[in-house]
Amino acid sequence: MKTTIKSVFAVAVFCIISTIVYGQPVDEIISKHIKAHGGIKAWEKVQSIKISGDFTAFSEKNPYIEIKARPNKYFTDIVLGQHKATEGFDGETFWTINPWFELPFARKMNENEIMVTIQKAEFCTPFFNYIQQGFKVEFAGKELVEGIEVFKLKLTRKNGLIETWYLRTDNYLEYMCKSGWGDFATPVEQEAVFDDFRKVGDITLPFYIERIFDTRNTVTEIKTIELNISPEPSVFEIPLSAPIEKLRFLEGTWNVTVDVMNRAGAWANADSTTSEIRYLPGKNILSETISYTRYFPVEKTLNWTYNTELKNYRLSIFDDIYSNLVLYQGNFSSDSLVLDNTEISFSKEATNPPLSKYIFSKISEDGFLLEIAGSRDKGATWRVQQKFAYSRKK
Hints:
This protein is mostly beta strands. 14% of the residues lie in helices and 54% in strands. It is elongated.
């Protein structure tokens, strides 16, 4: 019985000592760390940050900007060597434009790129409200790093990623961090060094950050920091490619008048309907489903895309009468967008395939005209057979 009591007492003492040695320093250190950055109340007042300065990569220094906004929004514009790279997060989609990958348009990030962006997007450090974020922090003692005494803290994020932070014992500000990073979307380990802390309003931030990873080295030198700006929400959203942006005139909700060429060769009104053309969220594609009557009820689904290799537009149309998908391609000619299927491969048995052409003209903010023409002589001559007049719904 005495042995049992002694054992219980020993365990209790050990737990108490462990709490004193490992638990209390964590709470105290983090509290003083946040206070050194201005304190919780000061940071809770910060809803957005705009950072401007110089970013050095591949031994070349260029201007850069960085915008952070609550909740969970981020944007940066930097130069990596000979290419400008853009990164963003709108609260739902992490995206980047990085010509190093030979993709001139925005794409979604992979898991490694997302992990890096989350670290860069943090307002303060991950210790700010770390418990609410589901992070775990362990005290790993004191060390000397390059002659500077630091507290060593092991931080485990909610997703299991581990970072080691070194906070100075003299002022509780971060001196160095070792964590996972990315090099051209590939996982690597990094060492980040923080220096030149300055007060901006009621908060304190580092104006110098150097990162060493793989065989590379980047340096961020901040010149100005603006607090509580009002950034345009669109800056965080994944942007359209330039060619697809040119199709912006198609987007909207429309009243549509349908005229057809009758058998007597005269134009006649067939129907009046409505339609909506929208960009698919986060994608370089516009889509429309339109229903109207031309002798019989017709429903068509149209999708506009752009082929970066051939540098032309693609239009796919599914017609529910024929249950058939037709593909068109083309480009802008003067002020009109002209797409046809003259270059589309048909079956070898089709000696005289049905050719058609979609012509978008009279383009303005309030509407446009779509003419559908057909050819029975392999594209030598064309005859307009249908007209769709789109006027924007007020």
